[in-house]
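Example record used in the benchmark description.
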Amino acid sequence: EIARRYACHSQVVDEANGVIVHSAFAAALAAQRFACHAGMPIARAALCRAVETGVDRAAARARVGIDADAFVVSTFGFVNHIKLLRELVEAWSRSRLAAKREGRLLIVGQGHGDRYHLELQEAIARSDAAARIAITGYVDDAAMADYFAATDVAVQLRSESRGETSGAALDCLAFGLPLITNGCGALAEFPRDAAVVIAREFAIRDLVAALDDLEGDAAARDVLARNARD
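Model output (structure tokens):
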């Protein structure tokens, strides 16, 4: 709670000639938290990601054991409550994909066996399509790239932000993945033609609708993929 409420790096800022951040959200947060340094320059420099080209989707799916005809929704990163993973499991389980043999939901990342991780596993077990939902655990960089390449739709959500930029969300764009996110922190700055941005405080039905819309509209997915790389 202390880390959420107060800046924990004020000594660094006290000694700085300026601050470089990755987003307009972080710049505004810095200005708010360090109002005592009102004259200090704050500059924005994007968190860089190289566009991924020449992705061999079929080979990537073979390496990570995903069927060629699967429709894969993935989310990437450590398992924690900030990522709203239980909400994603509930929404996917209510979507049309849960009723389809080819539907898959992958949580690509590592849990820590804490209470949230256990509650997420329980939520998955309650789903009627539990057999087609998986938490991969830790994967190395090569396997992570394969999971990006193998994904049809990515979902990256946040319940709160302390100014960070999601490298995983930017990787989704770099791989040309149709991305669903919510307007939390820097995620709200994604262009609306490059990602589907639902409300920060979304209802489960909003996420269900976004999943169903993209699953049923290959042309929309193609447009998002092109704009994501751009």
